[in-house]
Amino acid sequence: MWCHQLRILLAAAQAGLAIAQYPPATVKKTVAGAGGAPKAQVGAVVARLLKLTRAPTPPDAADGVAVALTHILRS
Fold first, then answer.
1. pLDDT tens-place string over residues 9-64
2. Radius of gyration of the chain (CA)
């Protein structure tokens, strides 16, 4: 899987796009307030912040939104 990630990062860099990466604990701490927060908690906080009736599904979608929120909040 990491090979696909490297290809995406390389393509973004070649296109002149800014790249930001955050460790999972940083995303969890930024969004949920605790670096060890479980996926369900991250999803619940994402739903609350975005005023959704439930967490995005699948859980990886909530994780992606949490990364985006982390970038916004830390930029």
1. 899 999 999 889 999 999 999 999 999 999 999 999 999 999 999 999 999 999 99
2. 13
- Report how far residue 14's alpha carbon sits from residue 69's, in angstroms, rounded to the nearest whole number: 25
Tokens of 11: 């393509």
Contact 66, 57 (CB under 8 A): no
According to DSSP H, which parts of the chain are helical? Answer: 2-14, 24-32, 39-49, 59-74
CB 34 within 8 A of CB 28: yes
**What is the value of pTM for the model shown?**
0.84
